[in-house]
TrEMBL record:
InterPro entries: Snf7_fam (IPR005024). This is Similar to Vacuolar protein-sorting-associated protein 24 acc. no. P36095. Coiled coil: none annotated. GO terms for biological process: vacuolar transport. Residues 188-202 have a biased composition (Acidic residues). It holds the Pfam family Snf7. Residues 174-204 are annotated as: Disordered. The lineage of its organism: Eukaryota, Fungi, Dikarya, Ascomycota, Pezizomycotina.
Length: 214
């Protein structure tokens, strides 16, 4: 029935705008939830680093691994905050496009909105709902249909943490004097070798971070 209606009646611009804005708000709430979770993880990780540095049972390598994890959490938080700002920009530009349409009777595709939407579709936290939004924006004529691209892998989303960056985190939390000598950062697959399984707090934090990334 809806397909028959679409042949004779054009979509209601006001209804389209409401639906687009509702989807944008839904995505914004989702990002807010992820950002809040990351803040909790960051606080817990900071406490674990301080506790690890004071524990005689933990090695400097273990403490440095926790610092690497903290850097990754912070990078994710920054990435999601940037994405939230992009969403707000999309909402303003969509509203402006519909206002122009109301005045001029037509709408032009926006390369700026398309660029932001294309970037947000690739975000693992928003992939599904952003595709729904992009579909609505294509129907409204605000963006052109996008070509499906492979989602970036975890290695592309999180750059490798350098030794200097790890040192800065340790100095920030423990002071330069307590940061200690440089110890090579172990690869993620070597965690069992340095005994991180002895710290249930770290394991719980890693599980939460893994759920957030999935």
């Amino acid at each position: 029935m809806e397909s028959i209606k679409s042949i004779f009646w054009k979509p209601d611009p006001a209804a389209q705008l409401r639906k687009c804005n509702a989807l944008i708000r839904k995505n914004t709430r989702e990002l807010d939830r992820h950002i809040s979770t990351l803040r909790t993880l960051e606080t817990k990780n900071r406490n674990l680093i301080i506790a690890s540095s004071k524990s005689r049972h933990n090695t400097p390598a273990q403490t440095r691994l926790l610092a690497v994890e903290l850097i990754r959490i912070r990078k994710q938080s920054t990435r999601l905050a940037t994405s939230r700002a992009q969403l707000q920009s999309v909402m303003m530009q969509v509203s402006e496009a519909f206002s122009v349409r109301k005045i001029e009777g037509s709408i032009k595709a926006s390369t700026s909105v398309m660029k932001d939407v294309n970037s947000l579709v690739k975000l693992p936290e928003l992939t599904g709902t952003m595709r729904e939004l992009s579909h609505e924006l294509v129907k409204a004529g605000i963006i052109e249909e996008m070509v499906e691209e492979a989602l970036p892998g975890e290695d592309e989303l999180l750059e490798e943490e350098g030794e200097e960056e790890v040192e800065r985190v340790l100095e920030e939390l423990m002071g330069k004097r307590e940061a200690g000598p440089s110890v090579p950062v172990e690869e993620p697959g070597q965690e069992e070798e340095v005994g991180l399984e002895e710290d249930p707090g770290l394991e719980d934090m890693r599980q939460r971070l893994a759920i957030l990334k999935s």
